[in-house]
Amino acid sequence: MKVILLIIGFLLLISVEILRVYFIMPFPGSQEEETITLAYWLHSNIIFVRIIGLAIIAYPFFYYFRNKGQMVKVFLAVILGFYVMVFYMFNFRYLADQMFLQPKNKVFLDSAANKVLLKQLIVGVTINNESKAYPIEVIGYHHQVRDIVGGEPIMVTYCTVCRSGRIFKPVVDGHDETFRLVGMDHYNAMFEDKSTNSWWRQINGEAIMGPSKGKSLEEIPSAQMSLSEWMKLHPKTTVMQPDTTFSEAYKGLSDYDEGKRKGRLERKDSLSWMEKSWVVGLQIGMDARAYDWIELQNARIVNDVVGGMPVLIAVTPDSISFHSFSRVSDADTLSFELSSNAKNLIDSKTNSLWNWNGQCVSGDLQGKSLKPVQSYQEYWHSWKTFRPQTKQYIVKK
Q1: How far is 48 from 385, CA to CA, in rounded Å?
Q2: Tens-digit pLDDT profile for residues 184-219
Q3: What does the pLDDT read at residue 13?
């Protein structure tokens, strides 16, 4: 009986340490099933489970240690040492916020002093006439960066496994909140708030477990494009520079922008509509649409209707930046095509010339502007997982 208790106790202690991390990290088989409820229970009750495990092994452990020979004592010491090693690895080494640290030195430079390559992709935001750009290969490592733009606190987030960038207002129930990276659910990064220990999805700012379940962070409009394109639209922008403390960590994402990384988590599929294919997605009301990136690059311009709204999705001449707008100007619904030099847009109704910021620069509609529509570039598996109602747009050839 003592041997059975010893085995059960150590198995419980070891397995619970492993499983509480396994369920919320991208280990093989851990992200496909609906295990988030069990993962949160283990996370919230780990001390209680440890006490049970220690209580189970306490009597037989000390009994054998005091009354048996040297070989038994060595065996018990080895088993205990193995548990201590597992405890250390899964509580200090394999925790998400210990693997992906927050920046220590946040430096922003203007266009003249900036050292980030202009071809790099950024997530950009403008608040109260202040614009800032955050390189994806920098925020992709950190997963979240806290900042203030236009006098407003923001939380810039990125999940490299979903290829999803989002910016939120880090306020819950009217109070500023602090978050830490806790793991992932269905391959999307999750954050834990300090006040209630609730778990929040990166992809939509929704709390999915804990006392705050059902609440959502307010999303702030943002855009993804090359730094060069962003600077053309926002010449007074400042750009977040890589923190030299993490130079080696950034090297791990040095080819992420181009989709050249290998491995199952951050690679890019070369064919359309595969799990790791890139798509541009947008949602209006309850309707969601996905546009394959390869098809978009070839078409350059897509006129569509989503949720009753006529929309335009346009890929810029650099072939790595994109914009999306409502096609309604005043009471008119416009359709667009590329200009003869493929450097601007032309509406088919008036032949007016529009720039990539949705502004009409010449023609009958000069001075008019299109309203931006929030859109994102993501992996196809991510977009369809969190928006199962989405419809695929097949570009006409």
Answers
A1: 34
A2: 999 999 999 999 999 999 999 999 999 999 999 999
A3: 97
Task: List Cα–Cα distances, 156 to 222, 239, 314, 363, in angstroms.
Answer: 10, 13, 24, 38
The number of C-alpha atoms within 13 Å of 80 and in the hemisphere containing its C-beta is: 12
Greatest Cα pair distance in the chain:
97
Burial of 278 (0-12, 13-18, 19+ CB in 10 A): buried
Distances (CA, A) of 184 to 36, 45, 97: 9, 19, 11
> DSSP letters along 217-255, please?
PEE---EEEEHHHHHHH-TT-EEEPPPGGGHHHHHTTTT
Q: Cα–Cα distance between 393 and 366 in angstroms, integer?
A: 31
Dist CA 377 CA 192 (whole Å): 25
The predicted model scores a pTM of 0.93
Q: Write the CA distances from 308 to 283, 287, 303, 388, integer angstroms.
A: 11, 9, 13, 19
Token pair 């394999």 in the structure block, residue: 94
Question: Can you read off the two tokens belonging to residue 163?
Answer: 């290829």
Count, residues in the chain? 397
Say what the alpha-carbon torsion angle 290, 294, 300, 306 is, to the nearest 10 degrees: -10
Supply 9's token pair: 């106790």
CATH code for the structural domain at 278-393: 2.102.10.10
Strands 332-333 vs 328-329: parallel, antiparallel or unpaired = antiparallel
